[in-house]
């Protein structure tokens, strides 16, 4: 049962993504948002899998966080261009939170040295 609970939080988002693709995306949603959110959450998914199942180096950890920051910044710029209020708020929160986590990671690495 323990191994099942370890994998369920990786399988459930994949099932939800496939259901979204199966039922289709509403017409009022811009396709660029779908692609950018898939890119962002795909990188986040990769980051989570690496953290849980492997022991990535500090350099890989920081690199994936930088890629997530760049992805959320691109999402923020696109949201501002299309004036999507909810997406602006969400991408701003993601950008600030991931930037702060990167700052804390770099700060803890400097303290270890």
Q: What's the multimeric state?
A: single chain
Bulk shape: flat
Largest sheet: none
Helix content: over 70%
> N-to-C terminal Cα separation, in Å?
40 Å
- Pick out the low-confidence regions: none
Structural class: mainly alpha
Element order: H for helix, E for strand: HHHH
Radius of gyration: 16 Å
Number of helices: 4
Whole-number count of domains = 1
Q: Give the overall average pLDDT.
A: 81
Number of strands: 0
Please indicate the percent range of residues in DSSP E strands (runs of 2 or more): under 5%
Transmembrane segments: 7-25, 31-50, 62-82, 88-106
Keywords: Membrane, Transmembrane, Transmembrane helix
Short description:
The protein has 113 residues and is mainly alpha-helical. It is built from four helices and no strands.
What does this entry look like structurally?
The chain crosses the membrane at residues 7-25, 31-50, 62-82, 88-106. Keywords: Membrane, Transmembrane, Transmembrane helix. By secondary structure, the protein is an all-alpha fold. The chain has one domain. The protein has helices at residues 2-23, 31-53, 58-82, 85-112. The mean pLDDT is 81.
SSE arrangement:
Elements: H1 2-23, H2 31-53, H3 58-82, H4 85-112
Helix pairs in contact: 2-3, 3-4
Transmembrane segments: 7-25, 31-50, 62-82, 88-106
Keywords: Membrane, Transmembrane, Transmembrane helix
């Amino acid at each position: 049962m323990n191994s099942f609970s370890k994998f369920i939080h990786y399988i459930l988002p994949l099932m939800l993504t496939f259901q979204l693709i199966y039922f289709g995306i509403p017409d009022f949603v811009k396709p660029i948002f779908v692609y950018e959110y898939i890119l962002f959450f795909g990188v986040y998914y990769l980051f989570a899998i690496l953290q849980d199942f492997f022991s990535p180096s500090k350099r890989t950890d920081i690199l994936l966080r930088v890629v997530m920051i760049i992805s959320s910044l691109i999402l923020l710029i696109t949201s501002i261009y299309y004036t999507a209020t909810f997406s602006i708020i969400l991408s701003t929160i993601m950008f600030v939170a991931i930037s702060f986590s990167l700052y804390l990671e770099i700060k803890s690495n400097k303290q270890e040295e």
